[in-house]
Amino acid sequence: MKKLLPTLLIIFLLTAFQKKEKEVFICMTKSSKTYHLKKECRGLKKCKSKIKKITKKKAENVGRTKCKLEKEESIKK
Domain-by-domain residue ranges, the chain? Predict the structure, then answer.
């Protein structure tokens, strides 16, 4: 019991301060090449297939790039 408390404390400290990975949305069609930061993105509304939420890192690892419409919106702000 004495060893359990320090162990749980260490586990809590290690997990409590981990950065949560940024999640993005992708259209699951074969021709889709972009990821979207918002599910309401105009580019994603054209998707005729399933929309999936994945991490930004995974999306980039499979060759997806940020949606151009969202790039334009961030420039306007």
Answer: 20-76
